[in-house]
């Protein structure tokens, strides 16, 4: 308040006492001189009080403006009027309450941003003008150079997804799902949910949330390929069989020579189909319980001896020898005997099928000091290795990583000629995985191959370590 206003206020406040003094002087109760002196004294007194009052108010106003600018400040000290002190204290309390609210909001905003950044799904926020107004880290990795302030079409050009956005932004839909493919190094498939956000989210009116479908699509593709491969594998022996049946029903109807000639081939083809169906069923069964570890006790050396004895006839047919050696006294493990028989049967039978005439199949059981990386978590347990080594043409390096894929063969004709289904190693891989083990294949062209199965060995102390992992 200016000085003139101060004088005017003091004057206004002095009007009633001045009127009383004039009345007293006019009725000769006091002299006019005394009345003037009293009026001047009252005027000076009011001015003095008002100055102190306004000084207090100015201090409070200054304090209020520092609070407005910095949200903190030192409240004025030694205020003369209680009302001014109360006002100052109210400002302090209001500011403290606001500060607390702001801190909570800031914490919440940064937590929301952090939560958003930790989401594995890319999320992009867009306003009504289709401008990108926010995104999380996953979105930044998906769309290179993603920045706010640009039109969405700078990053997404897919017309179907943009149509979906238009549907939602025009209010025709509240949300819309669209499949979207990002063609970077490898194709990635996403299900994109475009949704309208509540009005309180400011300039973030719409959200596009991307769920990765790549693995799902891969599995679907693998299933389709597998069904096609299985169908193809079954069709060949089936058409051979049908061909022979037609011949026997037609031109060779009464020809006992043709019958004698065709029947062994028909039996071979039927057996091939039988093996294939058995392997397919086996694989389906194994995949069903692959994630349930076995719980029975069994002994690896005993199993291998049994398998080797069973394959002796096949080995003799090629004048081959199966030699089993072990550097372990104890070869017990937790496992399903039938499944481990299937594992070693497949490996030793392959060694015989693909091994050279008159050669030896060496089966070695040993303990491993440095387990392969896949079994790193069992490094404190005993790991047993069973290697099946053959003397054969070997396998070129580029085929090794694909050998355990279903129906993958290095030489399809040769595999079929020796009665292979192309599923044996896929079955072995799944069975070994169920036993918490792993298989490593090594081969040298012109020398032979080594298929090594690593299995955690059962001992009193590693059993529960093994099954807790
Ligand atoms: P198959 O029934 O055809 O033998 P597998 O799944 O057992 O199917 O093996 C896949 C392919 O791996 C075989 O077709 C063959 O090309 C190759 N293979 C497997 N074992 C051996 C081995 N001991 N020596 C050479 N090649 C092998």
UniProtKB/TrEMBL annotation:
The keyword Protease does not apply. The chain crosses the membrane at residues 7-26, 32-54. The keyword Transmembrane applies. One of its GO terms (cellular component) is plasma membrane. GO terms for molecular function: phosphoprotein phosphatase activity; phosphorelay sensor kinase activity. Keywords: Kinase, Membrane, Phosphoprotein, Transferase, Transmembrane, Transmembrane helix, Two-component regulatory system. Residues 229-459 form the Histidine kinase domain. It catalyses: ATP + protein L-histidine = ADP + protein N-phospho-L-histidine. GO terms for biological process: cellular response to phosphate starvation. Its EC number is 2.7.13.3. InterPro entries: BphY/WalK/GraS-like (IPR050351), HATPase_C_sf (IPR036890), HATPase_dom (IPR003594), His_kinase_dom (IPR005467), HisK_dim/P_dom (IPR003661), HisK_dim/P_sf (IPR036097), Sig_transdc_His_kin-like_C (IPR004358). Pfam families: HATPase_c, HisKA. This is histidine kinase. It comes from Thalassospira mesophila.
